[in-house]
Design a protein that fits this description.
Radius of gyration: 31 Å
Shape: elongated
Strand content: 15-25%
Number of domains: 2
Helix content: 55-70%
Distance between the termini: 18 Å
Oligomer: single chain
Largest sheet: 4 strands, antiparallel
Number of strands: 11
CATH class of the largest domain: Alpha Beta
């Protein structure tokens, strides 16, 4: 009685999980996030080179990685990733990027950020170039204008003093940038703004010799908290905030490789990957039906439940922003189809052995399920450890393969415990004893 109650509870739990999975996964193209190699986008490899006389330390690389992450995040590209590669390189992936040129420009800017008092510049050629740069920046044009000559101006402060820069709104609801500074920057900024307040003299925000903004000082700012206002669009405000918060990169950044992946090519690859997955699922199902008959039909239903739960889990992970499906990820999913079928095969084969040994179908089902799932867990742990190691130490798309493999192993065990095992025990209570040939087993000793 208790066994039947537990079986009913398990099956009701499976039904509820399936309903939740369907709700989270369908439609698949809308609910499951697609990675760069499927959705299309920009893949960039950047290399860091230390300035002359300096060493490329782990601390320096960590700082560069933080800056790149900030630039990518504030640029507004969803599901973007920044990953270390080797000793001095980074792989940046920007799925769905619409403006590759602008993204490359933002990523490749060395980021030597300076603050310059406009009134301190006396060279007419430099003043003219500043005006040209400001015009080009405000027009959003890509320009080949030369950088300012550092010998022609003096920066009173560098970007290293910036502790935080975020997009906010001014008193009229227009986009603006809020800036906070450390104690050193606060003191310098208080002195400069007290001197320039109300004079209409702009402070130039210069990145790698190019003027990005030129706000004027209205009032003295003594606490370092500053609002930069202007005729910004939200994208312009995001870019300025990214530039300010990035501060000064401690190295030179070079773009070693950039690859723009076509969305059309990615979708074609997705279709081929899904076709391979469906074909694998169908072939496994046909084999199970042909070899195990009624038990094979149970395996097919178990695989369908496994697949639905898997897709639902991917939908949940996509919704919370921690998963994006890639082609290597699809390969991991296809591989787990075999893992899921293997669990059923272990249960079925152990069941047949127990019955052939003379046990009743009921007792054979109980011991077979317990023993086979224990064996399956042992085997899955070995695969899981390999997948975890691959995920931890690999870089790039290989992580997607390892992640989907790990996820498949866990969901397979859940499906086996909540569905396959209870149903095997339920079938052994009656149908398997009455028509054993349908399930590919012997009649068993019905006296026990």
């Amino acid at each position: 009685m208790k066994s039947k109650r537990n079986t009913i509870i398990s099956l009701v739990g499976v039904v509820l999980l399936l309903a939740l999975a369907v709700w989270q996964a369908w439609p698949l193209d809308a609910k499951i996030t697609q990675g760069l190699d499927i959705r299309g986008g920009l893949s960039v490899i950047l290399s860091a080179q230390p300035f002359e006389g300096q060493a490329l330390t782990e601390e320096t690389m960590a700082r560069v990685e933080t800056i790149l992450v900030e630039r990518v995040n504030q640029f507004g590209v969803s599901e973007a990733t920044v990953q270390r590669q080797g000793t001095n390189s980074f792989l940046v992936q920007l799925p769905g990027v619409e403006n590759a040129e602008q993204a490359l420009q933002l990523l490749g800017e060395p980021g030597r950020l300076e603050f310059v008092d406009y009134s301190s510049i006396t060279d007419t050629a430099t003043l003219s170039l500043i005006d040209d740069q400001l015009y080009a920046e405000q027009a959003g044009e890509t320009t080949s204008l030369p950088a300012l000559d550092a010998a022609k101006y003096d920066a009173f402060m560098t970007g290293e003093v910036i502790s935080k820069a975020t997009v906010t709104a001014d008193d009229y609801g227009n986009p603006a940038v809020s800036v906070s500074m450390d104690s050193s920057g606060t003191a310098i900024w208080a002195d400069v703004t007290s001197r320039l307040a109300g004079q209409g003299v702009p402070v130039l925000i210069v990145l790698d010799g190019h003027v990005k903004s030129a706000p004027t000082v209205r009032n003295a700012i003594l606490n370092g908290d500053t609002i930069i206002e202007g005729s910004f669009t939200i994208d312009e405000a995001n870019r300025l905030a990214a530039v300010l918060e990035s501060g000064s990169l401690p190295v030179d950044i070079a773009i070693d490789e950039s690859r723009l992946v076509s969305a059309t090519l990615g979708q074609d690859s997705l279709k081929q990957g899904l076709l391979a997955g469906v074909a694998g699922l169908v072939l496994v199902a046909l084999f199970m039906l042909a070899y195990y008959r009624g038990l094979g039909a149970l395996s097919v239903v178990s695989l369908a439940i496994y697949s639905t739960l898997y897709l639902g889990t991917l939908g949940v992970l996509s919704a919370v922003g921690v998963f994006a499906l890639t082609l290597p990820g699809i390969a991991g999913i296809v591989l787990t189809i075999g893992v899921a079928a293997d669990t059923s095969i272990l249960i079925f084969e152990r069941l047949k052995e127990e019955i052939e040994a003379g046990k009743t179908h009921r007792s054979a089902a109980k011991s077979a399920v317990r023993s086979a799932i224990g064996t399956s867990i042992d085997a899955d742990i070995v695969t899981l450890v390999s997948a975890v190691a691959l995920y931890v130490f690999a870089i790039g798309p290989v992580k997607g393969f390892a992640f989907t493999l790990m996820l498949g192993i866990v969901i397979d065990l859940i499906a086996a415990l909540l569905f396959t095992a209870p149903v095997i025990r339920l079938l052994a209570e009656g149908p398997m004893s009455r028509i054993p040939w349908l399930f590919g087993v012997k009649g068993g000793d019905r006296r026990g």
